[in-house]
TrEMBL record, chain B:
This is ABC transporter ATP-binding protein. SUPFAM superfamilies: P-loop containing nucleoside triphosphate hydrolases. SMART domains: AAA (SM00382). The lineage of its organism: Bacteria, Pseudomonadati, Pseudomonadota, Alphaproteobacteria, Hyphomicrobiales. Keywords: ATP-binding, Nucleotide-binding, Transport. Residues 2-234 form the ABC transporter domain. Transmembrane segments: none annotated.
Amino acid sequence: MRLNSVGQIALVAAAIAYLLGVYFASSPVWMGFTINALIVAVIALSWNITGGFGGLSSFGHAAMYGTGAYASAILQVKFGLNAWIGFGAGILAGATMGAFIGALAFRYGLRGSYFALVTLAFAEVLRICASSFEFTGGGSGLQLTLTPGIGNLQINDRTVVYTALLIVVAAVMALTALIKFSRFGAYLIAVRENEDAARALGIDTYKIKVQAMAISGAFGGLAGVLYLQLWLFIDSTVVYGSAVSVEALIGPIIGGAGTVWGPLLGTLGLHLLGEGAKHLLPNAPGLNFVLYAIVLICALRFLPQGLVGLAGRVGPFKKKENDNA
Amino acid sequence: MLEVRNLSKSFGGLKAVTDANLDVPEGSIVGLLGPNGAGKTTCFTMIAGFTKADVGTVRFRGQDITGLPPHRICELGMIRTFQIVQPFAGLTVQENIAVGAYLHHHDRRDAMSVAREVGKRLGMGAMLDRPASSLTIAGRKRLELARALATGAKLLLLDEVMAGLIPSEITEIVGIIRQIRDEGHTFLMIEHVMQAVMSLAETAYVLNQGKMIAHGPPRELVKDPSVVEAYLGHGAAARLQEGSHA
């Protein structure tokens, strides 16, 4: 996780300062807002594994997010199992769903926009299924019983929740860095850059892509479970809706896809922007999505490497090894 | 080291390769010649596992590798390069080579140091930290070679590695290939640059319209009437003969 320039250090320092500042602001609104942003950052980090490193742009990360949340909720509500078991099962379910979608899509050589469409279709099919079947709670969703306590993964104290989420995000980022600088990461990037050349160099590209989907799915499932434990309620639109898929990809693209810090920076930046817009124009709900779209278009046009790439151009260090943050 | 027997491939009604036989002894440099569209690259893609042959067998170091996927073949020690060079544009030169090195060196530090060493051996020491996208054509061709070598492959299938280079660059690559061969590697190369084939290859095969029409030392091949006619058209050999008498 090396930072290559004054700009990148400033950017990361600003993010850390903000995240720590939330502790001292003693504003429940800010804290609640940042807690939401951190959960979105986890799904953004999930998208970043496949979309950022692997160049496999999914448009349906809600499939993993929702599957993680539903798996945990069903185990708790229908089978009365402990929340921690649900937590593990949710991550596993997300990974399985990711691997399944990947195995199927890559088996038929789908890439680019076709892959994006298939993932979107999966998420939508799952959303409709979840709203139809009885064991997923149908249209009314699933509600966990309120039983506060660490044993049930239900925490009332917002500061503790916030700290826990910071630790989770840091852990997922550390795993991302580990992946980036490993053989697997190098292979994944090679697949993104040129799949034929990767195959010639002895890379089993199918296996690498399915593994990436499984890891991404695990992170996605984790995000879903975190959401569930925070709100104690899910329904099909909330966790399988396309808004989740959009939020998963927009943060990394704005922040810098294929970087360790990009997804967090992009998500925080966007949410601040969206929140700001809400306060400036309180009578226009949904305006934040219009704003997201404008920012996304600008980022795609002017910032191919996102905020991290932009900051990298501000006061770059001379360095021996060329690694991005 | 490599034995190809009765290899055939059709695309619909087009017979791209028919009944091709080919032997590459260990430590040699063997050329694969032929006019455009003769089926040379198709031959390569079948040998390296990128496309499945309709008929025929490929044996590498005595082992039947027909139908194995490319990554398995590469693990066994045979690798192909591409006619149109395919660098990983977003990575540095060293990282590019490291992707090859990762095949047998799972640790990042090992892979990067192997990459550095291979890069230096191919005269790319000064370019290691540059993005691969900034390389010239000659640099990219070298990178292609370096990446292949870093996998630890013993047999390299080079697809027109000289194409698009100026004569002085060709001389350099010829020297590099000879050096790599002396270090214990074997080459099968598709090549149009006759200067290179003449000075490198001990034997060459000539493919025309999907069929092997001749094989032997390159110096003799250029006099072979069937080879001359493959390039210059029917009756050309006879006319050349007359021309040289007149």
